[in-house]
Each structure stands twice: as C-alpha cells, then as structure tokens.
Design goal:
alpha+beta; 7-stranded antiparallel β-sheet; 11 helices; globular
Length: 345
C-alpha cells in the first residue's frame, strides 16, 4: 500500500511524503474501503454503516476488540483466515484468535446447572406437543436450507429448500431464529423460554430438533465460529449408541439430560439409527473468547444485515424471493409433518 501511495505522489510531482502524511493517506484509504465494504459487501444501510465506522474508529486500538477488527480488515481485503484445524476449514466466516475446540467441557459454564435442572420440565413441555401434533398444530416443520425446491416425501405438500439429511426425516420447532416471529411456538413452552432468557450471551438461536427413525444428518459446517452450540437431549431411544453426534474427529453417543457443548463451525453430522424419534433442545451462545464490546458490535451487524435482507426481498422478483431463507422458513410452516413420524416413542 505504501509503495502505491509513494508512486502516486511522485506522479503528482511530490518527491517524498512525510510519515504523518503517509499515515493520514493510509487511514483515508482504509476508511473509504471499509465504508464500501459495509455498504456493498454487508449491505448495511447508511445509518448502520455510520455506526459501524464509528465503532471501528473508536475501538481500532482497543486490545479487547482486535479479533473483530482483524476479521473486518481481512474481509475488506478479501483475505479469508486459514484455519489451523482442518476440520474447521469449510466454515465460511472465521474470526481469528478464538479458541477452536470441537467439544467443550460443559462444566466451565456456570449456567449449565440451570440447564440440567430444567431438563425434566422442558422434556415434559416437548412431549406435551404430541397432542397438538395430532391436531396438526404442533409447530414442527421440515428443516430445509436455501437452494432448490423439492417435493415433500408425503407427496401432497411442497417443501421448499434443500434437505440436510440423506435418509429419514428431520423436523424443527423454532423458538428463536433471525428475528422471525415464533411467539406462538414459544407460548406453548414457557419453561423452556424462561431458561433460554436466563442464559448469559444467548445468541438468539434456539429450536427443538426431532430426528425421526433412521435419519442421518449429512456432514456440514455452521456459518461462523463466533458462537457455540448446546444440545440438551430430551428424548433418546434406549438402543445403545443408536443416536450419535460427530464433531471433527470425535463421535459421541447421545444420552437424555446429558448436555453437550460444541463448536458447529467444525464439520459435524448426526445419526438416529433407532426405530424411534430423537428429540433435542438446541441453542447457541456467543463464543466465550469474544469481549463484551465485540459481542455488542457483531450483534448489531447481524441485526442490521437481517433488516437489510428483509428490505431487499421487497424489491426483487417473487421467484428470487422464494429461494431466500426467510421465505423457505415461512413457507414450510404450512407443511405438517406426519405425527407418527414425529412421535415414534
């Protein structure tokens, strides 16, 4: 960068730039490029961009914010951080400097005791959803990711998006995701919501995951390493080792009430090889290495991007809009999984 600045100065008849002039020029260039990055690459509004620029300027020299600042500069220069752990290299967004462990010790989190204590009540709430499933109001829907459209296995309903499993059925009861309104789902499980609201640094992602008999969730990576994922198995078939979770190079069997904390930026996959359903509460927390200021900034950026994406969808064709994550989730709410598939227990 400095050589380019010096060359430009010579072309303008300036033989030598002072150190202060060089620094000021560098800062101006970085500021302009960062502004373009927020506006174009992250699609932030002018207001959100102004806030983001102000945060970077205020915290650029703050040691507790260096991970996020380094991440932003790398993204701005289109230089993806190469992960030291090969199992993490398929994750699209890596913030440098965060501990990379596939499985974490749950006992290092003081709030984990509350999760374990809440297990009986949460399990009771989930099993109570079986009666509403019979009335076709369970709140469960097929898990699908943005991509093409395919026909639901039941044959009558169209399920949008691409399945993340290659056998069986995988259905989700969303509680929190991308600021989508799942208040009706939350009202049915007040004890679960009470627990989630008590979790420090809750990431605003939570759901019940129902893997039907003989279901395999194919290997994949989460979108970022800035969070950790928590599994609380609520109903696990008794068949030994039939329900398993692999994260990186380690596979663990699921057990009712045994909390698992893992980094889903690592390649992972899951199995239910039993003849019954497996039900798990899943929720995310911000990575514990991130400072409070970094969490505040990343949370702001995340919400600003979601608002921008919703606004963008208002101005594109219906065909393009149908392939978005928001549209897929909303559309699949009307797809009612077979109650016998959901609740084989």
């Amino acid at each position: 960068m400095e050589k380019k600045i010096e060359r430009a100065a010579r072309n303008c008849g300036v033989s030598e730039l002072s150190k202060s002039s060089m620094n000021a020029t560098n800062e101006t260039i970085v500021t302009k490029r960062l502004n373009v990055f927020f506006r174009k690459s992250l699609a932030l509004s002018k207001f959100s961009t102004a806030f983001a620029m102000s945060w970077v300027k205020e915290h650029a020299a703050d040691e507790s914010c260096q991970r996020v600042v380094a991440y932003l500069l790398a993204r701005m220069n289109d230089r993806r951080k190469k992960c030291k752990d090969t199992w993490q290299r398929g994750c699209p967004q890596i913030i440098p400097g965060l501990r990379a462990l596939n499985f974490w010790d749950p006992d290092q989190f003081e709030w984990i005791k509350r999760v374990r204590c809440a297990f009986p009540k949460i399990r009771e709430e989930v099993l109570a959803l079986r009666s509403s499933s019979i009335q076709k109001e369970s709140g469960f829907q097929p898990y699908r990711a943005p991509s093409s459209t395919r026909k639901n296995k039941q044959g009558s309903d169209t399920t949008r998006g691409t399945a993340a499993h290659d056998s069986g059925e995988w259905n989700i009861y969303y509680l929190y995701l991308h600021n989508i309104d799942f208040s009706a789902n939350r009202e049915r499980v007040p004890e679960t919501v009470k627990l989630l609201k008590s979790i420090p640094r809750f990431y605003d992602h939570a759901m019940f995951s129902n893997l039907a008999s003989t279901t395999h969730v194919t290997k994949h990576h989460g979108p970022t390493n800035k969070k950790l994922r928590i599994h609380l198995p609520l109903y696990v078939p008794e068949e030994k080792n039939s329900c398993r979770l692999r994260v990186g190079d380690e596979t663990r069997a699921s057990a009712e009430g045994r909390v698992v904390v893992f980094d889903d930026s690592f390649e992972h996959e899951a199995w239910n090889d039993s003849k019954k359903s497996r039900v798990v509460l899943i929720f995310d927390i911000w990575h514990p290495d991130l400072s409070d200021q970094e969490v505040k900034f990343l949370s702001f950026i995340q919400k600003a991007q979601l608002r921008a994406e919703r606004k963008r969808l208002e101005h594109i064709s219906e065909e393009d809009r149908e392939s978005s994550l928001f549209s897929i989730i909303e559309s699949n709410r009307s797809v009612r999984p077979n109650a016998k598939v959901l609740w084989t227990m």
